[in-house]
Write a structure and sequence with these properties.
The chain is an alpha/beta fold. It has four domains: 213 residues, P-loop containing nucleotide triphosphate hydrolases (Rossmann fold, 3-Layer(aba) Sandwich), CATH 3.40.50; 80 residues; 191 residues, 3-Layer(aba) Sandwich (Rossmann fold), CATH 3.40.50; 118 residues, PCRA, domain 4 (Orthogonal Bundle), CATH 1.10.486. 46% of the residues lie in helices and 12% in strands. It has 29 helices and 18 strands. The strands form four sheets. Strands 11, 12, 13, 14, 15, 16, 17 and 18 form an eight-stranded mixed β-sheet that branches. A six-stranded parallel β-sheet has the order 3-2-6-7-1-8. Helix 5 crosses helix 10. The N and C termini lie far apart (63 Å).
Length: 697
C-alpha cells in the first residue's frame, strides 16, 4: 500500500508523544492521540481521523483549547460541510469553555462565542455580503440552489436555440454538471468533456457559448449559484485591497471533512493562509467518496507537500464498532493503492463476527434481510437502530416490496430533498422575487403558476420588470382573461413584500394565502403539500429577516419536514434504507449491506479507471464502518433480467484476507409454505416438459 511521505516529526507525533497537559479540564476526556491534536501549536496540522474515532470531539476541543490559550473567538474560522455539524461543534466548544474556572461568556446559545462557524458556502455568503462591493458585487444578490441553476441554464439554452437542434443537445442538468466541474475542479472544458462527458464532445463550441450566456444572465439578474460563492470568495482574497484585510480577520482556521473538499476550496484555504499558520484540517482519506461532486482525495493526500512544515496526527481508536467489525474494515482498506497508514482498533474486543451472506437470488436476499430485521427487533433492537445500505437507489426495490408484504415500516434516504419539492419552491419563489425583482428563475416560476401565461409572455413580463426595476411596471400591463382577476392581487402582494418589514413568517403566510388556490389546481395531492407549506411558515419564525432565510435554505436545505419541525415521536419506529453516500457520518446498531456483488460494489459504471475503483473501495469501507454491533454483507449469486438470469460473484474487495474476517451463511430460497418433497418436484418437472413440447411437436 502506498504511504504518503511524512516528515520525521509527523511520524513521531502519530506514535503518541503528547505534551504534559493531562490534568487540564479540556483534555481530561481525550485519548493520547486526540490530546496531541488538541494542544498542537500553530503550525499547519492534518488530523487523519478514522471512522468513529471522535473527530468531532477532537475538533471541538481544539476550538476550546484555542480560546483557553487566549485566542479571540471572533478570530477563529470553523469550516464544515453542513450547518448541523458546525452548530454541534460550536455547542460542544462553548460547553467546554464555560466549564473552565473563571471563564465569563455572555449568555446565549452557541453563537455567543462569536466564532465564524459554518459551511464553506455560508461563510462565503457572509463575507461577500460584507465585502463583495470591492469586486463589484451588489450587496442584495440572491442565491440559486441546484434546481434554480438548472432552470436558468435551461432558459438560456432555450434562448440560444439549443433546445431545438437536429441532434439532441445535452439536458440542463448535464450542462450544469459540466459547467460546475470546470469551476470546482479547475479543469478546462476540453478536459472535462474528454474525461467525464465524452458523448458531449461534439457540442464543445455550443457549450462554451452557453456558459458565456449563462454567466452573463446571472450577472444581469444579480444572482449567484453555488460555484459563484466560492469563486467570488477567492476573487476577494486575490483582490489587492480586500485580500489582506480578510486574511487578517482570522488567527485560527479549522476545516472539517477535508477529504471532501474540491480544488477550488483548497485554493481558498491556501489564499487564506499561504504558510498554513494556524491551519488545522481534519479528514479521512479512506472516506473520500464524493468525486462525482468535484471533491478530490488529492487535497488530503498532498497536504504535507502543500505545507512542508505540516504535522500529521492519526486517530485510530474507534468508539463506534466492535473489534471484529473493524478487523473486516481494516482488511478492505489494506489493499488500497494509496492511503495514510492507520489501523482502527476498539476497546470493545468481543462481539459477533460480521456475517457474509450468500443468497440464491435477489428475492432470497430480500427475504433474508427482512427476516433478520424482525429477529433483531424481537431481541430488543428497534427498527430505527437498523439500516440497510446499498450502492444505488434502485437496489432496494425488491426489498421495499418484501418489507411492505411483511408490514415492516421503513424510511428511504438518498432521494429528493424536501426543499427541492415543486410546491415548496413555488412558495419560496414569491419571497425570492420580492427580494430581487431581477431574479429571472423566481419570476418565471411565479408567473408560470398563473393560467394563460406561457413561457414567451412570462419572459416579456420579466423583461419589463427588469427595465423598470419595480413591480409598478406590471400594474398597467394587460394580461390574458384567464388570469385577469389574479393579476392585481399578485402585483399588490409583490409590492407589499418588497417594501415590508413584517416578520418573515407573516410574509410567508401572505404568499401561502395567495398560492393555496393555485396549489389545488396544479397538483393532484394538495392536502399533504399544504401541510408542507405550513411547516415552511413555522420555519420562518426562526429567522429575523427574509434574506437570511432564503440564503440558508438554499445553502443547507433540510432533507425532509423532520429536519424542519420537531424530532419524530418517540414511538415512531422504522427501518432505515439508504444509499451508502447518504449514510456517511451516521451509525446504527445493525447494518445490512446488500448487493455486495461485483458490478454493484464496485458499480460497473465506476470501474473505468484505477482512481474510480479505489473510490468504490472506500465507499464499501464507509458502509462497513456504519455498524456498531452487528454487520451483515449480502450478495446474490444470480440476477434476473427479464426471462434470463446472470450469475454474479462477490465483490472484488472481498479478498481472501477480508473474507476470513467474516462468518459465512448461505440463504436459501424461502418457500411460502412447506418445501416441496422429491415426488412433487419430479411431477412438476414432467408437467413443465409436457407443456413446452407442444410448441414443436
Amino acid at each position: 500500500m502506498f504511504m504518503p511521505s511524512l516528515p520525521d516529526e509527523d511520524v513521531r507525533e502519530v506514535s503518541g508523544n503528547v505534551p504534559s497537559h493531562k490534568d487540564h479540564p479540556i483534555l481530561a476526556s481525550l485519548n493520547p492521540q486526540q490530546r496531541a491534536a488538541v494542544v498542537h501549536d500553530d503550525r499547519p496540522l492534518l488530523i487523519v481521523a478514522g471512522a468513529g474515532t471522535g473527530k468531532t470531539k477532537a475538533l471541538a476541543h481544539r476550538v476550546a483549547w484555542h480560546i483557553a490559550e487566549g485566542i479571540d473567538p471572533a478570530r477563529i474560522l470553523l469550516l464544515t460541510f453542513t450547518r448541523r455539524a458546525a452548530a454541534e461543534m460550536l455547542r460542544r466548544a462553548e460547553a467546554l469553555v464555560r466549564s473552565l474556572p473563571g471563564t465569563k461568556i455572555a449568555s446565549g446559545s452557541s453563537g455567543s462565542l462569536r466564532i465564524w462557524g459554518g459551511t464553506f458556502h455560508a461563510i462565503a455568503t457572509r463575507l461577500l455580503r460584507r465585502y463583495g462591493q470591492a469586486i463589484g458585487l451588489p450587496a442584495d444578490f440572491t442565491i440559486h440552489d441546484q434546481t434554480d441553476s438548472q432552470d436558468l441554464m435551461h432558459a438560456v439554452r432555450t434562448a440560444l436555440g439549443l433546445a431545438k437542434t437536429e441532434r439532441r443537445f445535452p439536458q440542463k442538468a448535464t450542462c450544469l454538471a459540466i459547467y460546475s466541474r470546470c469551476i470546482n475542479a479547475r479543469e478546462t472544458l476540453d478536459d472535462v468533456l474528454a474525461d467525464r462527458f465524452p458523448w458531449c464532445r461534439p457540442w464543445r463550441l455550443e457549450l462554451a457559448r452557453l456558459f458565456d450566456a449563462y454567466v452573463e444572465r446571472k450577472e444581469k439578474s444579480g444572482v449567484l449559484d453555488y460555484d459563484d460563492l466560492l469563486t467570488h470568495w477567492l476573487a476577494l482574497l486575490e483582490d489587492p485591497t480586500a485580500g489582506p484585510h480578510i486574511r487578517g480577520l482570522f488567527d485560527r482556521i479549522l476545516v472539517d471533512e477535508y477529504q471532501d473538499t474540491n480544488r477550488l476550496q483548497a485554493e481558498i484555504l491556501y489564499a487564506l493562509s499561504p504558510e498554513g499558520k494556524g491551519l488545522t484540517v481534519v479528514g479521512d482519506d479512506a472516506q473520500a467518496i464524493y468525486s462525482f461532486r468535484g471533491a478530490t482525495v488529492e487535497n488530503i493526500l498532498e497536504f504535507p507537500h502543500h505545507y512542508p512544515n505540516a504535522s500529521v496526527i492519526a486517530l485510530e481508536q474507534n468508539y463506534r464498532s466492535t473489534q471484529p467489525i473493524l478487523r473486516a474494515a481494516n482488511a478492505i482498506m489494506a489493499d488500497a493503492r494509496r492511503a495514510y497508514p492507520k489501523k482502527l482498533w476498539s476497546g470493545r474486543t468481543s462481539g459477533q463476527k460480521p456475517v457474509l451472506v450468500t443468497c440464491e437470488d435477489e428475492d432470497t436476499q430480500a427475504a433474508h434481510v427482512a427476516r433478520q430485521v424482525l429477529e433483531h427487533r424481537e431481541a430488543g433492537i428497534a427498527l430505527r437502530q437498523q439500516a440497510v445500505l446499498f450502492r444505488a437507489s434502485h437496489h432496494s426495490i425488491l426489498l421495499e416490496a418484501e418489507l411492505q408484504r411483511r408490514d415492516i415500516p421503513f424510511h428511504k434516504y438518498g432521494g429528493l430533498k424536501f426543499i427541492e419539492m415543486a410546491h415548496v419552491k413555488d412558495l419560496l419563489a414569491f419571497l425570492r422575487l420580492a427580494e430581487n425583482p431581477r431574479d429571472m428563475v423566481a419570476g418565471l416560476r411565479v408567473l408560470g403558476l398563473l393560467p394563460g401565461i406561457g413561457p414567451a409572455r412570462a419572459n416579456r413580463l420579466m423583461q419589463a420588470l427588469e427595465d423598470q426595476g419595480d413591480f409598478s411596471a406590471w400594474t398597467a400591463i394587460k394580461v390574458p382573461q384567464a388570469t385577469a382577476e389574479l393579476w392585481p392581487a399578485l402585483v399588490a402582494l409583490l409590492q407589499h413584500l418588497r417594501g415590508t418589514s413584517e416578520p418573515v413568517a407573516t410574509q410567508l403566510d401572505r404568499a401561502r394565502a395567495f398560492y393555496q388556490p393555485l396549489l389545488e389546481i396544479a397538483y393532484d395531492n394538495p392536502v399533504p403539500r399544504a401541510r408542507d407549506l405550513e411547516q415552511i411558515v413555522q420555519v420562518g419564525m426562526q429567522y429575523a429577516d427574509r434574506r437570511t432565510l432564503l440564503a440558508e435554505l438554499a445553502l443547507d436545505p433540510p432533507s425532509s419536514t423532520q429536519d424542519l419541525a420537531s424530532p419524530p415521536r418517540r414511538d415512531d419506529d422504522y427501518l432505515v434504507l439508504s444509499t451508502i453516500h447518504s449514510a456517511k457520518g451516521l451509525e446504527w446498531d445493525v447494518v445490512y449491506v446488500i448487493h455486495a456483488a461485483d458490478g454493484d460494489i464496485p458499480s460497473d459504471m465506476a470501474t473505468g479507471s484505477a482512481e474510480e475503483i479505489e473510490e468504490e473501495r472506500r465507499l464499501f469501507y464507509v458502509a462497513l464502518t456504519r455498524a456498531k454491533r452487528w454487520l451483515y454483507v449480502c450478495y446474490p449469486l444470480r440476477y434476473q433480467a427479464g426471462h434470463r438470469s446472470t450469475l454474479a460473484k462477490p465483490s472484488r474487495f472481498l479478498s481472501p484476507t477480508a473474507v476470513a474476517c467474516f462468518e459465512h451463511l448461505s440463504a436459501a430460497c424461502e418457500w411460502p409454505g412447506a418445501a416441496p418433497n422429491a415426488a412433487e418436484e419430479s411431477q412438476a418437472r414432467r408437467s413443465i416438459r409436457e407443456q413446452t413440447r407442444r410448441y414443436w411437436q
